[in-house]
Each structure stands twice: as C-alpha cells, then as structure tokens.
C-alpha cells in the first residue's frame, strides 16, 4: 500500500510539474536585455520589483497557515443566492455610441471605457474562473457577460494593471488579441502577451510615472501597493500599477489592486484630482491588508485623490477572500456617505455615463441576493 501511495503521489507531482512548465497559462519570461532594462527602474532590485517604502507583502508561515485554513471556513453569504443579473449589450450599441465618456462594468475590475470616440478595455478578465485551471478556483457569480468577446467590436486600447489571474486571463487575451490596436502594461507583463501571440509592436510597457501620449490620450502608469506572479517561481518578476487616463481635459483613475498607502495622495496632488475613479474594495483580509485595502479605505482614497465621483470595484464576480460577497460594496457605500464622497454602483452591463452631478445610488445587489 505504501508503494502504491508513493507512486500515486509521484504521478501527481509529475503532472503538476509538467503542467507548470508546459501550460501557456503561466505566460512568458523576460530576456536578458529586458532584465537589464528592468534593473534601471527605481522600483527594482535584486531581481524583483518592490513597493514604495519597501512595504512587505510576504506572509509569515503562521499567517499563511491561517489564510489556507480560512479557505475551508464556511462564510455566510459568501456567494450570491442565484446567478447575478447581467444587462446585455450588443455590438452595434457600442459601435454607434458617440456621446459623453461612459463605461460598461463586467464585474470585478473589468471595464469597457468609451472615451473620446475610442474603446478602451481595462483588465479584461472575461473567463469563468480566475486560476490557471478551472478546478483551482470558484466560478464567476454570473452565468454570462454583457457581451461575448467574439461579438466585441474593434478595441483601440487594452490597459492591464498586473498579471494575477483575476486581471490577466490567457483565454480572454487569446480571443481579444486580433481586434486590439495596442496594449499598455506595467514592466514585464508584456512578456505574457507575447507568449500568447500578441506582436511586440502592439505592446508598450511602462514604469511608474512613465506616460505615453497619442493624438487622443495620455496614459500614465502610477504606483500601486501590491505584488505579482502567476506561478511558484515568478513572484514580483513583473510590475503592478494603477493608471491615469486623460483626454480633452477629462481625467480618470483606475486603481488596479492596491493596499492603502500614501501613494494615493501623491497621485491626487500630481494630477490635481479626477473626474471619476474606479477603486478596489473587495477581497480584503487582515492577513493581507498591505495588498488589498478595506472598503472604508476605498472611500478615503476618493478624498486622497480628490475624485469627483468614485466607483467601488474588485467585487461582484469572484470569491477570493473570506467575506460576504456584498460586504465590500455595502461597507464602501456606508463610509462614502459618512465622508461625503460621491459614489456610484451601477449594475453589471449597464452603460453608465461618467457623472457630472450628484449620482443616484443603485442598490441592485440587494434584490439580486434574495
């Protein structure tokens, strides 16, 4: 019996090793020339990127054990009682839109932003499970998306915040790549795209505070407090970023993933405030507070960056932490009201114009959870 058990364990280990080395899900690796380029970054040392103030994101062995144990705890209301409602939109409604800046939320941190006559996708994770294999994660809360990738029209720009599976999805990129004009990523993330068939000419990697100006836009990579990696051996080998998008005097902030820190005030001071900000609010825990902020901090960031209106994101699609699926938005809304921060909470798939006046709060999740 021991011999048979040993053989089975060996087979499982072999399958795991082969999967890690052969599956395209894990992405690409940098060349020596790229490593030399990254070494010039102020945010890179000893072969890894790091956070401002050297904020550490590694958990102790004890905290890691607590985190793993928490995955097996039963959390009340951790998942919606039924699949979340999604407002469908067809390709023609996207193609024919020529109005004010608007967005369509796909859940979690994925957006279609229509701005200055262009289509911009933010962290387009359109897959069902945020993991390298469907058996390694929980399924999306909704049964579908507002529009299938195949039906999306031409996408002018894709912006990626970092390389974690809930933000950068192999299957989504493979389906999107031939209809995207250009990809903007933090340093190193472009190697995954190249591995998946995106041509190098269509990729621009940026360090924090670097920007690219086109005829219509300025895209700026700004700091975030997080980490990166898709496997066991590539921790912090690529950079993570928040982003600023500017066009015709309008400024939009996209937080990506980030713990709360002084970098938000710095960003707000540098850009003089924002018309609209998408700020993460979910997947938090005391054990990893350095890399994901709490919902109350989401509202505070709205003040720090001087945003006219904020939207809580990084919730409403996947279970990645030990809290109720509605806690993130409800806590963020409550704190925003206390701080007098203007906040909006549109339903997944509903085209939403960036508000110019006091927005109306849509508590759609309350009926969705019954």
Folded structure, characterized:
The structure is a single chain. The protein is an alpha/beta fold. It has one domain: Metallo-beta-lactamase, Chain A (4-Layer Sandwich). It has 10 helices and 15 strands. A 7-stranded mixed sheet has the order 8-7-6-5-4-3-15. It has a 6-stranded mixed sheet with strand order 9-10-11-12-13-14. Helix 7 links the parallel strand 12 and strand 13. The chain starts with a helix and ends with a helix. The mean pLDDT is 91.
What is the number of helical segments per DSSP (H or I, 4+ residues)? Answer: 10
Share of β-strand residues? 15-25%
CATH architecture: 4-Layer Sandwich
Tally the beta strands: 15
Instruction: Give me the side-by-side strand order of the main sheet.
Output: 8-7-6-5-4-3-15
Overall helicity = 25-40%
CATH class reads Alpha Beta
Q: How confident overall, as mean pLDDT?
A: 91
- What is the SS-derived class? alpha/beta
Radius of gyration: 20 Å
Give the tally of structural domains: 1
Domain Metallo-beta-lactamase: 119-315
Organism: Euzebyella marina
GO molecular function: N-acylphosphatidylethanolamine-specific phospholipase D activity; zinc ion binding
Pfam families: Lactamase_B_2 (PF12706)
């Amino acid at each position: 019996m021991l011999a048979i058990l040993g053989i089975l364990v060996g087979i499982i280990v072999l399958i795991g090793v082969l999967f890690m080395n052969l599956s395209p899900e894990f992405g690409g690796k940098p060349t020596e020339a790229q490593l030399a380029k990254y070494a010039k970054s102020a945010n890179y040392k000893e072969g890894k990127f790091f956070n401002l103030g050297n904020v550490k994101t590694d958990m102790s062995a004890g905290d890691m054990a607590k985190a793993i144990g928490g995955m097996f705890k039963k959390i009340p209301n951790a998942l919606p009682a039924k699949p979340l409602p999604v407002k469908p939109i067809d390709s023609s409604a996207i193609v024919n839109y020529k109005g004010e800046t608007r967005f369509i939320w796909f859940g979690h941190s994925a957006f279609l932003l229509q701005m200055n006559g262009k289509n911009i996708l933010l962290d387009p994770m359109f897959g069902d499970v945020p993991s390298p294999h469907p058996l390694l994660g929980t399924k999306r809360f909704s049964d579908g998306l507002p529009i299938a990738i195949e039906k999306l029209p031409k996408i002018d720009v894709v912006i990626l915040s970092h390389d974690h599976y809930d933000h950068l999805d192999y299957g989504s990129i493979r389906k999107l790549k031939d209809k995207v004009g250009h990809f903007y990523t933090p340093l190193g993330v472009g190697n995954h795209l190249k591995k998946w068939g995106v041509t190098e000419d269509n990729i621009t990697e940026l360090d924090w505070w670097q920007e690219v100006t086109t005829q219509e836009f300025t895209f700026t990579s700004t700091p975030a407090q997080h980490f990166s990696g898709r496997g066991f051996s590539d921790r912090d080998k690529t950079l993570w970023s928040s982003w600023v998008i500017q066009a015709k005097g309008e400024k939009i902030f996209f937080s990506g993933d980030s713990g709360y820190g002084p970098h938000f005030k710095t960003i707000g001071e540098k850009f003089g405030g924002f018309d609209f900000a998408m700020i993460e609010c979910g997947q938090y825990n005391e054990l990893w507070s350095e890399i994901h902020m709490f919902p109350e901090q989401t509202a505070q960031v709205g003040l720090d960056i001087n945003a006219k209106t904020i939207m809580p994101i990084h919730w409403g699609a996947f279970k990645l932490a030990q809290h109720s699926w509605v806690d993130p938005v409800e806590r963020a809304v409550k704190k925003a009201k206390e701080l007098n921060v203007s906040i909006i909470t549109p339903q997944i798939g509903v085209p939403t114009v960036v508000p110019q006046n006091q927005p109306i709060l849509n508590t759609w999740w309350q009926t969705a959870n019954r």
